[in-house]
Write a structure and sequence with these properties.
96 residues, single chain, mainly alpha, 434 Repressor (Amino-terminal Domain)
Length: 96
């Protein structure tokens, strides 16, 4: 694998985590759950929730963790893992 390919993979993973994080924030907000409340439900610190929502949580969030988040927010996991055409385009977009 070339260096540029590795960079693209890492960049796409980062964008993916940012989009998932935005979805977590969206569903948390519409369910009127604070970061602290969600953190307590998941038995993690509030800063972990903040990093997930910012897309900086290791740039590699597990499906198990996403399922736990979805359960804590009373939503289907698919809502965090299904992407609109716009979101898919963001994942494919590259800086010139």
């Amino acid at each position: 694998m070339k260096v540029t390919e590795v960079v693209n993979v890492v960049d796409n993973r980062k964008r993916l985590c940012e989009i998932i994080g935005a979805k977590v924030r969206y569903y948390r907000t519409i369910n009127r759950v604070t970061q602290t409340e969600l953190a307590n439900r998941l038995n993690v610190s509030r800063s972990v929730i903040g990093r997930i929502e910012q897309g900086t949580y290791n740039h590699d969030i597990s499906v198990v963790r996403l399922a736990e988040i979805a359960e804590a927010l009373h939503i289907n996991t698919q809502y965090l893992l299904t992407f609109t055409e716009y979101e898919r385009n963001l994942l494919e977009w590259k800086d010139p």
